[in-house]
Amino acid sequence: MSNTNQQLVVVSNRLPVVIERAADGRARAVPGSGGLVSALSPVLAANGGSWIGWVGEPGGGDARALLAEAAGALGCRLEQVPLSAEEVENYYQGFANEVLWPLFHDQPDRCRFKPIYWRHYEAVNRKFAQVVAERTRPDDLVWVHDYHLIRVAAGLRDAGVERQLGFFLHIPFPAVDLFATLPRRDELLDGLLAYSLVGFQTERDLDNFVSCVERLRLDLVVEGSGARRCVRSIEGGGLSVVVAVAPISIDFRGFASRAARADVSEARAQIEARMPGQQLILGLDRLDYSKGIPQRLAAFDLALERCPQLRGGVTLVQIVIPSRVEIEDYAALKQEIERMIGAINGKYGEPGWNPIQYMYRSLDEVELLAYYRASEVALVTSLKDGMNLICKEYCACCLDDDGVLVLSEFAGAAAQLGEHCVLVNPHDVEQTANAIHEALTMAGPARAKRMSALRRSIRRADIFAWVEAFLELLPRPKSAPPRRRISRPAPLGPQRGALACEQ
């Protein structure tokens, strides 16, 4: 990464901890959830550095002392960017999650653009840029993450602050015809082009971005194709930007070692004792319309209808993590999911057996790992996903290679894992129902062969390899010191698991 004076600075909407307040008003900092938190926390713990972000509640209150305490446990400095309630409403809930999120997930009909959203988005990005300028040094590597903070580099450049700036987009990048409909598209495109390096999850995302540049910025030239199609450069107008495919991963060894702990094995045994003789199918998702939960439930309903032999011997454990319930579309989705689950259980349920066990809450680490280990099938059937780390975590925790991954072809993970899982088009309910039956009835040797290959692939391309590869692509000024290699951590203690890219 660097010499001892250079640090890696992660900048994201959320810090890796959140502030929880008890009924008596007492506050404490607890580990955050999210794919980014789970992925980068062990990297910073092993290498040092700092993390800049918001604590997840308006104002920030008395967070400084709590963050200082949490920083010691995490092994990195935590720098807070306080946000007001008005900024949270318009920047985060508004432009980030009612404009960018649905558009980038191919659902433009859900976009609600209001000019006030953009004004706050720009202002908050500049607030983040100011904190970066104040809390970092010229030699530091500043790595900004995700759609909330596209304009941070532009804020730094406008202020005359020079840093080594990289950006990674965790969600998909839309096709040019969709991106072109976006108000403020030019400012967003210029915001991405203000970084020295921009990373994407898949070739499709990179191609979409390049198409936008070629159509909307005629003064720029994109170089690189063929064998170098996954790493390209954009030149012209005083700009020089590297754009690359760099799919994110997980701390495979960390998940596998924690999944083997005695407390996880005990929790797994308790799960299996509550549902004796059942084949367990796991659906684990943050509440979001991009995850395809209603389509999955419809497919499970169809599988039970067409394959009556499954009834009484199969249970779908559907866990939904609360998210963005203050946004109307999310509240409506929760109601739809619960209505469908009630209808399916009412249709097929018998004394002592309901086809779906439903939980609407977060899981602690032991529960998460225990459900991964207890489930014979994982259903990851998102309609659109940048990557989806749930499927990688599930595979890491299949310690005996006895599991089947049913994966959406529209998840970024399909580019890496598709050969050895059961791929589905989640919009095709009939195909997904057939895939559920195939996964449940797959012979043991075939299951083991597939899962073993999945685990090897994820182990080889783990989170540390991802960070190393990304930072190697970051253009380095001639005067900058050489970067040292990323260190891998010693075995980790407990930490909360990931839930795909919720920041």
Second-tier CATH architecture of the largest domain: 3-Layer(aba) Sandwich
- Enumerate how many helices there are, as a single number: 18
Backbone shape: globular
Overall SS class: alpha/beta
* Low confidence ranges: 492-503
Annotation keywords:
globular; Rossmann fold; single chain; alpha/beta; nine-stranded mixed β-sheet; 503 residues
Provide a short characterization of the protein structure.
The chain is α/β, with parallel strands linked by helices and 503 residues long. The protein has helices at residues 35-47, 63-74, 85-104, 115-135, 152-158, 176-179, 185-193, 203-216, 252-259, 262-274, 293-306, 328-348, 365-374, 390-397, 414-417, 429-441, 444-460, 463-473; strands at residues 8-14, 17-21, 27-31, 50-54, 77-80, 141-145, 164-168, 197-200, 221-223, 231-236, 239-245, 279-286, 314-321, 356-360, 377-380, 404-408, 422-424. The chain has 2 domains: 8-78 and 127-249 and 462-473, Rossmann fold (3-Layer(aba) Sandwich), CATH 3.40.50; 257-459, 3-Layer(aba) Sandwich (Rossmann fold).
